[in-house]
Amino acid sequence: MLNYISLSCYILINAWMMIYCLFISRERGYEFPFWAGAMAMVVVVPQAVAFYSIPDTLPPSGYAITLIFASLCSLFLWMGFIMGRRGAKEPPRILINQYSMDEMRRGAGIMILVGAVFYWYWNHLVQQEDFVRNTGIGTVVMFFAQILKIGFFIVLYQVIAYKDKKAMAWLGVCLFVMLPFILFKGRRNDMMQFGGGVLMIFWFVRRRALPRWLILLCVFLMFVFMCNTGYFRSAMSENNNIGMSYWERLSQISWLDGVDEMLSTGGAGEFANCVYAVSAVNETMQFDYGSQYWNWVVFSFVPAQFVGSNVKEALYIANGYAFEVLRNVFPYYEAIPGTMWLGYSDAFQSFGWFGSFLFGLVGWLMGRLYEFSKRQEPLAIISYVFLFSPAMHLIPANVMLVFIQIIYFCIFGGIFLVLTRGSRHKSLTT
Fold first, then answer.
1. Which of 86-90, 321-325, 353-357 has the highest mean pLDDT?
2. 301 is a domain residue
3. Over the stretch 237-266, which tens digit does the pLDDT of each residue have?
4. How many domains does the chain have?
């Protein structure tokens, strides 16, 4: 009975969040809570429904505890977004500074050229062992590849807002580099950033909104693709279906089978991973109090190639490995390699039930950026669209991803945009 109540609450909260943002609010589904709710309905709910019929495969009470905590996270995210918008009275000085569009375009061009090299390098060598492990040179390449996306959003903003022909040329370079990997490699994060960037900037700058039925269709297609990501990548692999065209490879995918597998078996088992992780911490009450997040920051921003491995290792916090608790409590459980753990797991591992406030914090930040973006502040718009996809991955991946991207943007995006401030209305054609 408790499993049924917890599942129903989770579905109702996220469904109502979507309905309110799309049909009741004046924002037409462009608010972050709508897409966060869509991600929950697309990724978590199908797996939760599947495991509802096979609860014996999960720890006792783990199913209900996980979904109750996930429901709290959704509520706090929504409340945080509302509070962020309402509290966005005076924007920070950094957002209201005047920016030289010419300098921004030139700087974006440098970002695009540098980022394109690393982006191409990463996507062509991602299947090699060093890159799969995200260590060594792979970490460095993936780190600098993100620069391309910042440059992409800058020129995309200039094209939509000002129809700048020079920015269109740089936008063409971005599309030439990014689209092949989106269409043939199935990069979900890149796909969401690309599609979300176009939709959001059109909304903020020109107030152009998609019809509500088309937005719902996008959510449905996102669900179908999420269920078939593995099959899509396999069909597009250079080692499979040799000699076939792109559309012939697509026709080889049995899209309904992927959906059926998700609904019947829980897919790759991300929900099961999350339940085991939450149950282990709930049983032992051993929290890492955010030390795993510090370790992620060290891993992402401290290059061992420059400071040395000993220095980097010394910066790690010893108890920042929350999954050691899981291995001690459930030594028999082994997650499928490469699967995610859902953002609920690391939030609970760090702070228990108080981890739901992390979702509220992300919602608050996105709410403030959304409100400032509606006032057509360039830096706010670029920040919002850059963080939009990482913030959505707060649910299927982990909480730290969005905070890592915030730090990253402050380093490579914010500092650069501050240095290029000038007259916002300076001619773009000179």
1. 353-357
2. no
3. 766 667 777 777 777 788 888 788 887 776
4. 2
Same domain, 192 and 274: no
pLDDT tens per residue, range 126-180: 545 444 445 566 677 878 888 999 999 999 999 999 888 889 999 999 999 888 8
Residues 27, 373: Cα–Cα separation, whole Å: 13
In a domain, 219, yes or no: no
Give the domain range for residue 176.
Answer: 100-207
The answer on 266 and 203 residing in a single domain is no
The rounded distance, in Å, linking the Cα atoms of 350 and 289 is 4
Asked if the structure places residue 189 within a domain, the reply is: yes
The three state secondary structure string of 45-62 is: HHHHHHHHCCHHHCCCCH
Report yes or no: 85 and 25 within 8 Å, Cβ to Cβ. no
Report the candidate in 81, 84, 78 with the shortest Cα–Cα distance to residue 16: 78
Using alpha carbons, select from 159, 151, 160, 152 the residue that is nearest to residue 202. Answer: 160
Task: Answer whether residue 372 is part of any domain.
Answer: yes
Non-local CB neighbours of 396 within 8 Å, separated by 6+ positions: 39, 43, 44, 270, 340, 342, 343
For the stretch 79-88, what's the b/e string if a residue is b when 16 or more beta carbons lie within 10 angstroms of its beta carbon?
Answer: bbbeebbeeb
CB 39 within 8 A of CB 398: no
Q: Name the token pair of 216.
A: 């719902």
Triad 342, 199, 178: Cα angle to 5°: 75
Which tokens hold the place of 389? Answer: 């996809």
Average pLDDT, the chain: 85
Q: Are residues 83 and 18 in the same domain?
A: yes
- pTM equals 0.89
Q: How far apart are CA 282 and CA 353, in angstroms?
A: 9
Angle subtended at Cα 68 by Cα 73 and Cα 37, rounded to the nearest 5 degrees: 45
Q: How far apart are CA 283 and CA 285, in angstroms?
A: 6
